[in-house]
Specification:
Distance between the termini: 23 Å
Helix content: 25-40%
Radius of gyration: 18 Å
Largest sheet: 8 strands, mixed
Order of helices and strands: EEEHEEHEEEEHEHHEHHEEEHHH
CATH architecture: 3-Layer(aba) Sandwich
Length: 314
């Protein structure tokens, strides 16, 4: 089984307790562990896979809380750094349909320093790059780029998720797109939301969007469509895999559960080459990943809602 190195942010989600209220009106919040790459690492480990989180958290009680959660999920924390800067936070409100509204307060995640000792560990393994905060400049962005280069030179399987958050980019969409392009060019697998696929490609139609994204270089594209399932474009074919019907209460972490479950399945393969050749194999794996994402929406909080193998098999 390959190990999946998940690089990026871990943060505290302060979730508004009263569903349907916006952040301007919310007064009570519940503390939850979050951050897309940290969520993905937990999703893989919770399913019985091997994952490592590479990121920075504050040397404060919130940072300790996050690391305790990751450790309890048996995520490897060998390359986590503690910073004097406060732990990054996100304030989240949830609408009646389970969709989210974010406001971020950035902190320690941006302080990640590159560790050259990790490079050799990428060989024969997998690297997942979640970009919610990683492309916003500073030490994190430089380290992120170094790890990406290491993954390329070590022939690791590379997965990229743009994790676009409008609150973080504040009308700098062109800069966001420009910074995503090198990662899309070289990644074996890219996971997009519908908004991200249209934003980065400049195309409304999903087929046309995928043509643009494939032309950049990525081989497998997954576009998550919520309750409508996942649109997939790969060398083996183009298809939409339906999701399972659920009553969502919180969509936080659904995309992370999806990509975590997909990477977990890939990590158990002797070679990922068959992903590019066998449409049925990829379709079956996406169906399982869709189920993982759907299950995650049926409870509050990302990490505690991630499914186990038993839940996937039920």
């Amino acid at each position: 089984m390959k190990k999946v190195f998940c690089i990026g942010e871990a943060l505290i989600d302060f979730v508004a307790e009263h569903q349907g209220s916006d952040l301007a009106k919310a007064s009570d919040f519940t503390k939850k562990a979050g951050g897309a790459p940290a969520n993905v690492a937990c999703a893989i480990a919770k399913l019985g896979g091997r994952s490592s989180f590479i990121g920075s958290v504050g040397d404060d009680p919130f940072g300790t809380f996050l690391l305790d959660i990751l450790e309890n999920h048996e995520v490897d924390l060998s390359f986590v750094e503690r910073s004097e800067t406060f732990t990054t936070m996100a304030f989240v409100s949830i609408a009646e349909d389970g969709e989210r509204d974010f406001v971020f307060s950035r902190g320690a995640d941006r302080e990640l320093v590159y560790n050259p000792g990790v490079k050799s560990l990428f060989k024969g393994n997998m690297v997942h790059l979640g970009a919610a905060t990683a492309l916003l400049g500073g030490t994190l962005e430089k380290s992120y780029g170094h790890y990406f280069f290491d993954a390329l030179t070590q022939n690791a399987f590379i997965s990229f998720d743009p994790n676009y958050r409008s609150d973080l980019w504040k009308k700098r969409d062109k800069e966001f797109i420009r910074k995503c392009l090198p990662y899309i060019e070289k990644s074996h697998l890219c996971k997009f939301s519908l908004e991200e696929a249209r934003l980065i490609s400049g195309k409304e139609d999903l087929g046309e969007a995928c043509k643009v994204l494939h032309k950049l270089g990525t081989r497998i594209i997954t576009i998550t469509l919520g309750k409508e399932g996942t649109y997939v474009s790969s060398p083996s074919g183009i298809f939409t895999v339906p999701s399972i019907p659920v009553d969502p209460v919180d969509t936080t972490g659904a995309g992370d559960a999806f990509i975590g479950c997909l990477l977990w399945q890939i990590s158990m393969m002797d070679s990922h080459e068959s992903l590019f050749e066998n449409a049925q194999l990829l379709q079956d794996m996406i169906a399982t990943a869709n189920k993982a994402g759907a299950i995650t929406t049926t409870n509050f909080g990302a990490i505690e809602s991630l499914p186990t193998q038993r839940q996937l098999q039920s």
